[in-house]
Amino acid sequence: METLAALSHGFSVALTPFNLMWSLLGVTVGTAIGVLPGIGPALTVALLLPITYNLEPTSAFIMFAGIYYGAMYGGSTTAILLNTPGESGSIVTAIDGHEMARQGRGAQALATAAIGSFIAGTIGTIALTFVAPLMVQMALLFGPAEYFSLMVLALVTVTAVLGDSLPRGLASLFFGLALGLVGIDLQTGQARFTLGIPELLDGIDTVVVAVGLFAVGETLFVASRFRYETEEIFALKGSKWMSKEDWKRSWKPWLRGTLLGFPIGALPAGGSEIPTFLSYLTEKRLSKHPEEFGKGAIEAVAGPEAANNASAAGTLAPLLSLGLPTSATAAIMLAAFQQYGLQPGPLLFDSNPELVWGMIASLYIGNVLLLLLNLPLVGLWVKLLTIPRPWLYGGILVFATLGTYTLNNNVVDLVILWIIGVIGFGMRVLDVPVAPCVVGLILGPLAEQQFRRALAISQGDVSVFVTHPISLGLLIVALLLVMVPFLLRRRKKPVDPAGQT
Q: Cβ neighbours of residue 305 under 8 Å, at least 6 residues apart?
């Protein structure tokens, strides 16, 4: 009952005309960004961080949540019509969705993607509504030692999961931790690594780093890979509505995709890629027409798209209740909380219930708005694909530069922005994940504080981190996230007759 009362209060916040406007803006921008290839929700939220600096936090996060959900919707459009996924969760959708478009059934593919996204997003948001408070109750048992171990788990999560190479992930993480050391030590009052620059005494702004890595670096990388070739966009032909047979073949994949997407999205090793691939394999195994998969099976669009959107709701559960990011977009939203001086976790539910519950309620509203935007206006979103890419990339870089300068109105921020941006471009070229860097910058100083606090309480006894059951459990999970993939790779290596790998 308390949860329903809190959600009711959230709707009273989200349904105010001002917040409703930001929700509409968020889902509209998110859908547009999802449609444009190479520009995902992480880049968009990072780009808007400086612009929303003076915006009231609740309105800002309602807009960010709308962008996140909207990008998950919009990614299917470019995947189906252009065979170029707008974001990583739409990779699987492109396999059969584009084949449907080639056969003149692009409208039906887009319809099952939009309706499946709505159903999965709504069910996922209901699950988020009830799961997040349960996770908060667990987090209320945490002390400094448990919080330190939780932050270690968060750091390991993004390092081990968001990338193909653990060493590269660690390199990105340590770069972020090093950036987090710049500024004044809160306990000793001593300046650290400021290089005599007064503007660095307050530390390197998280927003500047996020915009540099995700907006400048990512845009430079995508632009460097751009080829001046004409892309074939398949026009929508015939009826734009699903037939009775299409509905019959779609509704079960929608539900199964939702059941896969939410729990996997909430896991430290989750994200949107794993549940979408699992949904595709599940539907192929259960289908009466497995031979159609890869040739335009509507189930292969319905299931993965549902899993994709449900995983977005799953990602928000550990982010809001524990401050644990499980995707690149969640890492940027963590930076957004930092911008407002907020820390996601159990205290946020008590100190800022309007923000948390207003944001959750806005997800229900945003889902309805997205359905209304995507089904009737699909032709409008298709036209976005005709925007010249050089104009798009140039506009993003100018927007990022101007937005960063407005944060503190100093040139030092611009110098840092472009240095970080060039480093971010190099990281993308070398396939080094950028999310661990942002999370290291945000959580590194907080983990240091909790570590010192735990040692002060235990009078210097480091065993406090393994004698507390919750802390020990979190550290074991973190260790398993590092060791299990390593051991699995070792087992897959071929063994020669001499017994050497």
A: 76, 90, 93, 112, 113, 116, 117, 120, 257, 276
